[in-house]
Amino acid sequence: MDLLGEIWTFLLSSGGCSPSAFGLMLWFPEFFTIFLPGWILNIMTIVHSDEAAVGFRFIFTVHFFNTHFRPSKFPIDTVIFTGRFPKYELMEERPEQYHRLLAEKKLETHRDKYPSVATDLFSTIMGFAMLAIGLLSVF
């Protein structure tokens, strides 16, 4: 069981409902003020912006740690661009999946040629560019 994945799914699903509802109220104030008092929209503006700020900080922190600042992934994880990762990463990060694929004799069906040097270089350059944009947008 991937506990971090379970927590992440819970936070995204529960944390996405209230800001979405509040944002909908702010998007269509004429409709919602038919049956809600106007001061509710003032409160929704504050709550919506606070939820967005907290969500942004949490996602930014968790994403940056898991993608860029973990020692095994530093300075960048190019899987997002290439769609492939080495066998040793599968063995280290997903041992249950690795053993299941071995038991089912399906490991070789998922084996693929690692990307070319040009693709790997392009992925690294794009990753660093996006990392720089992300860091500059925070500061």
Question: Topology, please?
Answer:
Blueprint: H1 3-27, H2 29-32, H3 39-69, H4 79-82, H5 87-93, H6 95-103, H7 117-138
How would you summarize what this structure contains?
With 139 residues, the chain is mainly α.
How would you explain this protein's 3D organization?
The protein is an all-alpha fold and 139 residues long. It has 2 domains: 1-55; 70-139, no CATH class. Helix content is 73%, strand content 0%. It has 7 helices and no strands. It has helices spanning 3-27, 29-32, 39-69, 79-82, 87-93, 95-103, 117-138. Helix 1 (3-27) runs antiparallel to helix 3 (39-69) and helix 5 (87-93) packs across helix 6 (95-103). The chain is elongated and about 60 Å long. The chain starts with a helix and ends with a helix. The mean pLDDT is 79.
Helicity, as a percent range: over 70%
Element order, helices and strands? Answer: HHHHHHH
Helix tally equals 7
How many domain units?
2
In whole angstroms, the N-to-C terminal distance is: 36 Å
Number of strands: 0
Unreliable stretches covering 5 or more consecutive residues: none
Radius of gyration: 21 Å
β content, as a range?
A: under 5%
Mean pLDDT: 79
Structural class: mainly alpha
Q: Globular, elongated, flat, extended or rod-shaped: what is the shape?
A: elongated
Main sheet specs: none
Primary descriptors:
mainly alpha, 139 residues, 73% helix
